[in-house]
From TrEMBL:
It comes from Hyalangium minutum. InterPro entries: Cell_wall_metabolism_enzyme, Dup_hybrid_motif, M23ase_b-sheet_dom. Residues 190-283 form the M23ase beta-sheet core domain. This is Peptidase, M23/M37 family protein. SUPFAM superfamilies: Duplicated hybrid motif. The keyword ATP-binding does not apply. Residues 300-327 are annotated as: Disordered. Residues 1-30 form the signal peptide. Keywords: Signal. The keyword tRNA-binding does not apply. CDD domains: M23_peptidase (cd12797). Residues 314-327 have a biased composition (Polar residues). GO terms for molecular function: metalloendopeptidase activity.
């Protein structure tokens, strides 16, 4: 299984895959261009679209889904996601940009190849209480769903972060995004997060700058923290044994959010790390590969000294899992 890296990688930043070039230059300004990361995507991947060399905010679509652009140094960026149900094949990227000097809009177009994700199948045997919640908790679960909906309803804003995303902790991945889970022989759910191994009491860190929009003890996800990063993007941290932040707090990349636990409907201690983007649960591992600022790939997010970090080791919790579907 893959490991969350413990040190910065020294490889060059992933280059944008150039999709289309405009034909008109504006003096010393770069020619209009449209580019996308990644060059090839899977269903469930986040996608970063960049437009350069235009005079104002563009608009556009990715696979028919509207794009919301924000301005960064020298470019307009839009962050969107592909649904996990996205059909394989080639999808269209279409952008319209204002061009006041010419009196008409500039049209840029490209394509993105969507390939087979290869989601694994997992067969798990668990106690019956993990498969069907008792009727007595239905009201609590409804309150949890309402709290999640409110947390994910933040107005669209420019990014609150200035660094690429980083791992929230260093350890082995025990379950990737997208795996299909059968409990006691019956298909129950698909996993919309990344399970990172850990022992109760291990530290969990913010994957990037943002604002805490929920801190709550939930029936299914246990101790839960949600961080809003702007640009329609949130990261979630489930099953925590202790939460060290409060709703409304501003957090920095690497700031300690709390501790690994086994709270909620799980079979053992671990961090379930989720990423929600534009209303879709997307793959956190793919988010880590996106280069927003032309910087090297991200490292483990931590403000602790390197000596305080555990070295990657064989899992002590092989087979532990988040049992219920993500809210």
């Amino acid at each position: 299984m893959p490991l969350a890296p413990s040190l910065p990688r020294l490889s060059a930043s992933l280059p944008f895959a150039l999709l289309a070039l405009g034909l008109v230059a504006f003096g010393a300004q770069a020619q209009p261009s449209l580019s996308v990361q990644p060059g090839t995507a899977k269903p469930g991947d986040p996608v970063l679209v960049a437009v350069r060399g235009v005079e104002g905010m563009p608009s556009g679509t990715l696979a028919g889904r509207p794009l919301q652009f924000f301005e960064t140094s020298g470019a307009w960026l839009a962050l969107s996601g592909l649904p996990v149900e996205q059909s394989l094949g080639t999808v269209a990227v279409k952008v319209t940009a204002p061009r006041p000097a010419q009196g008409k809009a500039l049209e840029l177009a490209g394509t993105l190849d969507v390939v087979e994700p290869g989601y694994p199948e997992r067969q798990l045997k668990v106690a019956g209480k993990y498969v069907k919640p008792p009727a007595s908790v239905k009201a609590r679960m409804a309150e949890d769903r309402a709290a999640f909906a409110a947390a994910f309803a933040q107005p669209f804003a420019s990014p609150l972060f200035t660094e690429n995303f980083a791992w929230p902790r260093q350890d082995r991945i025990t379950a990737p995004y997208g795996d299909r889970r059968s409990f006691n022989g019956k298909l129950q759910s698909q996993h919309f997060g990344v399970d990172i191994d850990g022992n109760t009491g291990d530290s969990i860190f913010a994957a990037n700058e943002g604002t805490v929009v929920m801190v709550r003890d939930c029936y299914s996800s246990g101790g839960t923290v949600i961080v809003h990063h702007g640009a329609g993007l949130y990261t979630t941290y489930f099953h925590m044994s202790r939460m060290d932040v409060k709703t409304g707090a501003k957090v920095q990349q690497g700031q300690k959010l709390g501790l690994v636990g086994k709270t909620g409907r799980v079979t053992g201690p671990h961090l379930h790390w989720g990423v929600k983007l534009d209303g879709l649960w997307v793959d956190g591992l793919s988010l880590l590969k996106l280069d927003f600022f032309g910087k090297p790939e991200p490292r483990v997010a931590t403000t602790e000294t390197p000596a305080a970090l555990p070295s990657p080791a064989p899992s002590q919790n092989e087979g532990t899992a988040t049992v219920t579907a993500t809210p």
